[in-house]
Each structure stands twice: as C-alpha cells, then as structure tokens.
Amino acid sequence: MATKTGYSKEFIKGLWDENPVLRMLLGLCPALAVTNSAINGFSMGLAVVFTLVLSSTIISLARNIIPKEVRIPTFIIVIATFVTIADKMLAAYVPDISKALGPFVPLIVVNCIILGRQEAFASKNPVGRSIIDALGMSVGFTITLTILGAIRELLGVGTIFAVQIMPQSFEPWMVMVLQPGAFLTLGLMIGISNWLNARRAK
Amino acid sequence: MTKSYRLILVLTATAVLSGLLLSFLNLHTRPLIEAHQDKVLNDALSSVLPGCDKIAEQFYENTQFYFGYDAQNNVKGIAFLTEGNGFQSKLRILVGMDAGLTQIVKIRILEQKETPGLGTKIETDPSSKANPEWFPKQFDGLNITNKITYLKNQTPDKSAGEIMAITGATISSKAVIDIINAALVENSRILNDNNDLNIGECPAIDAVNETVFDPELVPEGAEILTIDDKTYFLNKDDNGSVTGVAFIASGEGFQSTIKVLVCMSPDFSRMQSLEIIEQDETEGWGTRVVNDTTNSDPEWFLKQFTNLNVQKVIIPVATTPNKQRGEVQSISGATVSSGAIIKMLNAAIQGYRDTYLNRKANRYGN
Amino acid sequence: MANLVIIFLSAVIVNNYVLVNFLGICPFVGVSKKLGPAISMGMATTFVMTLTAAVAWLINRYILEGLNLQFLQTVSFILVIASLVQLVEMFIKKVSKPLYDALGIFLPLITTNCAILGIALFLVLKEYNFIESIIFGFSAGVGFTLAIVIMAGIREELELADVPEYFKGAPITMIVAGCLALAFMGFSGLI
Question: Are β-strands B223-227 and B230-236 bridged in parallel, bridged antiparallel, or unpaired?
C-alpha cells in the first residue's frame, strides 16, 4: 500500500507541483514554438512522452553500468537515439504533423526536461519509479502544451482541435497564433499558476 | 587503467547500439517517408495536369518539367515547380499549363509559411466558407500570353491575365504572381527552344534482333570514342560499320548510386539493351530491378528496355506498356528505384544523343 | 554578397532567433536579469554558434551526406557540439585568461542551449553553402545577443516597476518578450 501511494505521488508531482513548464521553466522553446494549435502542442507532448519514458527506462536499467565520468555523454546518446526514432516515426506515419513541428522534434534532444530527469531521477532510482516519474513529467508537459495550444488556437482562429467553437461573428485575434501570442499566453499561464499555488499554500 | 578502459567501452557500446538501432529504423521508415513525398507531388501533379493518362519528367537546361500525355500520347499539359520568396517564407508553387503555353490550367501552393490568417490565404482562406481556395483558383484558365497582373477591389478579367489580390496580404499575393511570372518567362523560352525534340507522337520503329553490346567488353574490348567529356563504346560489324553505340550512365537510386550500360541503335532511336553495372539497393526491394524473384522472369524489368522506342521520353506506366510509345512498366513496391533509372536514362540519352549525332554530322558530313 | 547581407539581416532582425524562432529561450529568461552577464552570454553564444555552424556544415556535407547517413544527424550533431564546447573551454582557459573569465562560466551552459543545435539543424534545412552557414551562425548569435541585451535592459528597469507579486520573474519576462516580439514583427517584409 505504501509503495502504491509512493507511485501515485511520483506521477502527480509532474502534473502540478513540479510541472516542467509552469513551475520549473524547462522546455520553454518547444512550449512556445509549436503551440499555435492544440493538435501541434499535443503531438509535441506525445513525442516527449515517448522519448522521456523510454530514455528513463533504459538509463534506469543501466544506471549501475554507466560510469559516473561519462554519464552525460551516454545519456545524450540514448536520448538522441530515441528522439531520432520519434522524429522518423512521425515523418513516416503522420507527415502533416511532422511538417508542422519541423526541426523542433530533433530539438527535443536539448530539451532540459529530458536530460534533467535522467540526471536527477532515472540514474538514481529503480525502473518502476523512473518510468512513473517520466510519465508524470511528460504528461504534465503534454497537458500544459495542449492547453497553451488550445487557448491560442481558440482566440487566434476560433477553433480547438480544428472544431469551430467561437460564433461566426467572432473576429479572430490573429496575434495569438503568431509569436507574440505565444509569449503573452505562456507569461499569463505561469503567472496564474503562481497565483493558484500561493492560494493553495494559504 | 581498467577504469578508463571501462569508460571507453561503455561509451563505444552505447554509440554502436544507437547506430545499429537507427539504421534498422531507417530501413523501415525511409521508404514510407519517400513514398509520402512522392504521393504529395503526384497528387499535386494530377491536380494541375487534369485528365492526363501519364505524366513523365524531363529535364531541359537543368529545369525539370512534367509532361502530361493523353491516351493518344499527345502532350496535353506541361507543369513545372518553381520557388521564390514570399512575404516571410519560401513559397514553392507547382504550375500546370496547357500544351500551347497560353493558359494556366491550375496552380498548387506546395509550401508556404506566410502570416497565419493573412498570407496563408494564398493557399486556403478559412474565412470564405463557400470557397476557401478562391485565391489559387483564380489561376485556373488564366491567360498567360501577357504578364499576370493584380488588382485590388475590382473584378479581375481572366482573359487579360488579371488576379485579385488578398486584402491585407497584398505582398504575399504579389509574391505568388511575381514568382509565376518570372518562371513563365524563363520556362516558356526553354520549352520553345527545346520543344520539337521530345513532345508528341514519335515515328514507329521496327523491332530488330541483333547482337547487343556485351558489357563484359567494357572498357577493354570495345572501340572507344570520346567526344567532349562523354565516352562512347562502339560496336562494329565485320565491315567496320557501327551497329550499336553504348555509354555508361549513373544516377542516384533509392539508396545507392546506380550505374548502367545503355546500348543504343546507331541513330539513337531505340535502345538495344540495358545492363546494370553497379547497384547496392535494398535486398528484395530495389534489387528487383535486376533480379525480381516475385516474377517468373526475374529480369523482366531490364528486358523491357530492349527495342524500346526512345525518340521521345521514356514514360513509366503502371499498366501494360507499349514499347513504341517509350513506355516501361514500373516495379510496384520499388517505384523509387525503377523511377530513378528511367529519370536517369531520359537525361542521359538526351545528352549523349545530341553530342553523338551532332559530332557525327560534323565529322562524316552526313 | 547580397545574399550574405540578406542572411545577416534576416537572422538578426526579421527572423530573430529568440523572438521569432523561439530558440535559446532558457538562457534568454535565465541570464537576462543584469546587463553585464547578458552581454557576456551573448558573446559566448555568438562565438560557439559561428564555430558550430562551420563544423556542422562540414560534418553534414562530408560525413552524413557523403556516406548517406542523414538519419544519424541528431545524434552526431549533439555529440560534436558537446565535445566542441568542451574543447573551446579548455582552449580559451589555456590561451587567454581574461577571455576565459569573461566567457568561461557561460560555456558549459551553452551545450544544452537549443539555439546551438538549432543552428546546425536549420543550416541543413536551408541548404546553405559553407560561407552562408558561417554567416548564418554568426548572425543568429548576433540576433540572440540583441534580444538578450534589450531584455536585460528592460528587466533592470522593471526592478523599479510595481509588478503584481505573482507575475514577478518569469511571467513578466514572457509578457515583455511578447511585446518585443510584437515590435519585431514590424520588420517582417523588410526582405
């Protein structure tokens, strides 16, 4: 029973308390660059789930074999391998999404969330916990990106996941799907999450 | 010492495993990725060259053209791909014209990353529910005997080559028109200069059985003729008259460089045979070019080239081919490899033919 | 020559690396509190970017394309960049103490900066030649420096402003960056 609550805690922390984008300010580049629609944010999130969970599994399994001195290069190779797999799979099976995400899929390699989790968690914990931790972090990342994409798409085009939400008379706020909209929305989201957190603490 | 030995071992092992994994992945995904790229282009081509039975590529002066042929093998339309800078991104546009080069049949914007909601209207305009593609559709049937011009807030006249610009995205609209105008001027000139060579029905030729060039002879046993940078191998009968001309062509196949020996009749009107000298394609997929184990005749693909009429371009078809029309059936499942060979042959035959026949005329006065 | 100028202007202003392409956001938010470190960070990044552009182009052209190994692009670029930064750090430490003091502590941070890997990926995507790649790397660095220096200048002033409590730090930085990006949009169409 005790381990069960431990696992769920490991998972939940990534969703809110240690949410990579909103709380830890990691992985901001993709969070800003690909969230001009909900589906793009969601797909980017899935690519990160795939990469992070698999890298964490491998590195956690091999944590006693990898010498300390070369751990960073080893992590990087493992991560880069899975990122390439994700990239090629996207290009082969969902080419339209792959085109929209562009070079930001290979850039997952340098996404601090992934290397950060290997260094801080997977290299020190058993496989089960590492997978749960990776799932929590990457799902938290996915949810944040999807919400960010949904807000921008709703205000900028009037749709969410390409489904018309706003009434026909709504004049889209073009700027939301452009670069400034990304900064503004993310800034407001981080601010609001700070506020919610402070309220919860009280 | 053992410590650093272990460091190197772990890093090397990781890198080797990673490389192995990725090469397997690449074998699996690359055909899918390339098939998709082909499909995008083919879909676009069949939309800008509507009603064409076959579409063949041909290069003139390093520019690639797509010729659409109808059932009678007449050229029905010509398409080309052009690109240039839009308002904030590169635009790639596929333009289809009628065979007389007087009208645009249709254009397709293949790539653009213009301002969302404004410049993107050059491709689709979501605000116009009834006709989201109103801007590119304006080019359907547009007169191009003069330069295309654009108007604002007036009704354009297609027969005068007029296009209505997008409100709020005049620069993007203008960029599309400028790119097409510039390409039309240059490409019409290229087509007019080279037109008579390869378009339309070609004279029939008789199938002949004769001794073909033995690739084993190359290069030692053959008589070699070098013109400019091109090398020809001549096949002569006992009287010393030329019975066949061969040359080596190479090009990029699906994943390797393919080298072929092309044997031509002396007047370059038909091919005598095609031999693959060198290839390193995927076992089972691309190697079907040479050895198709799924067919009762494993060499059926190469045999198609014997006595093929090549006075015009070689055209890959999916159905039963007609040698008189220069048609060759592609290998289903390895269209990239077979397409690459045909593309390479079209370019090579044209180049080698011109050089050889012109040189011959000069030398022998005939 | 004209296209080199266009590449420069485009990477610095029109398609500013940070504000338009969203690369290098982490250092942009992290190291823009004070003007001095921001300038050093910008210079160090520009230096590494120029070097990376040259090395990445050579690797891509002669190893990856030459051996038909494009699928190893991401893996090889990141490894080369990581080792390159290490080498540069050791080299500078040996050769010039003042330079090392100015740039040194920023160099390790740069390895995981997506702007650097971004340079390598973009120059392959844009099919630049060797000279164009170097210019592109350099200009992207200048663009990054420009953005981070403007940001640091604004944030020094922000210290005195009455920002709502929950918006201090990252949120207000993002919102200011949004305004900057809006201003930079005015340049689009310049080229």
Answer: antiparallel
Distance from CA of A52 to the nearest CA of C (A): 16
Is there a contact between B276 and B288 (Cβ–Cβ < 8 Å)? no
Which residues sit opposite B56 in a β-bridge? B67
Residue B108: strand, helix, or coil: strand
User: What chain B residue is nearest to A65 in terms of C-alpha separation?
Assistant: B10
Assigned token pair, B319: 């159905």
Query: Does the pLDDT at position C13 exceed 50?
Result: yes
Per-residue pLDDT band for B116 (boundaries 50, 70, 90) equals: low
* Residue-level pLDDT at B197: 43
- Of A51 and B214, the structure prediction assigns the larger pLDDT to A51
CB B22 within 8 A of CB C71: yes
Chains in contact with A, where contact means 3 or more Cβ–Cβ distances below 8 Å, are: B, C
Residues C22/C124, Cβ–Cβ less than 8 Å:
no
Among partner residues C15, C71, C189, which is closest to B26 by beta-carbon distance?
C71
Q: How high is the pLDDT of residue B205?
A: 54
User: pLDDT per residue over C130-186, tens digit each?
Assistant: 998 999 999 999 999 999 999 999 999 988 888 888 888 889 999 999 999 989 887
Does B33 lie at the interface with A, CB-CB under 8 angstroms?
yes
Copy the structure tokens of residue C166: 């929950």
How distant is the Cα of C35 from the closest Cα of chain B, in angstroms? Answer: 31
Task: Say yes or no to pLDDT of B53 above 80.
Answer: no
Judging contacts by C-beta atoms under 8 Å, the chain B residues touching residue A91 are 29, 33, 36
Q: The tokens 């993709």 sit on which residue?
A: A30
Strands B242-252, B162-164: pairing kind: unpaired
Tens digit of each residue's pLDDT (9 = 90 or more) over B282-326: 665 557 777 777 778 888 888 888 888 887 778 777 677 777 777
CB B67 within 8 A of CB B58: yes
Indicate if the alpha-carbon torsion angle B216, B218, B223, B225 is positive or negative.
positive
Q: How far apart, in whole angstroms, are the C-alpha atoms of residue B88 and residue B116?
A: 11
DSSP state for residue B270 in the 8-state scheme: B
Which residues in chain C have their CB less than 8 angstroms from residue A190's CB?
A: 170-171, 174
Which among C68, C72, C188 has the least Cβ separation from residue B88?
C188
The B residues from 100 to 119 touching A (CB cutoff 8 Å) are 115-118
d(CA A165, CA C182): 26
Q: Is B267 exposed, middle or buried (0-12, 13-18, 19+ CB in 10 A)?
A: middle
Q: Could you tell me the mean pLDDT of each successive run of 10 residues in chain A, 202 residues long?
A: 64 82 82 86 91 93 86 87 91 85 81 83 90 92 94 88 82 83 93 90 78
pLDDT digits (tens, 9 = 90+) for B170-201: 888 888 999 999 998 888 888 777 654 444 44
Contact call for A106 and C74, based on CB within 8 A: yes
Query: In C, which residues are within 8 Å of B23 by CB distance?
Result: 71
Q: Annotate B174-208 with b (16+ C-beta within 10 A) or e (fewer).
A: bbbbbbbbebbeebbeebeebbeebbeebeebeee
Q: How many CA atoms lie within 13 A of A102 on its CB side?
A: 15
The CA distance from C114 to A30, in Å, is 10
Residues of chain A in contact with residue C18, where contact means CB-CB under 8 angstroms, are none
Q: Which residues of A touch B130 (CB under 8 A)?
A: none
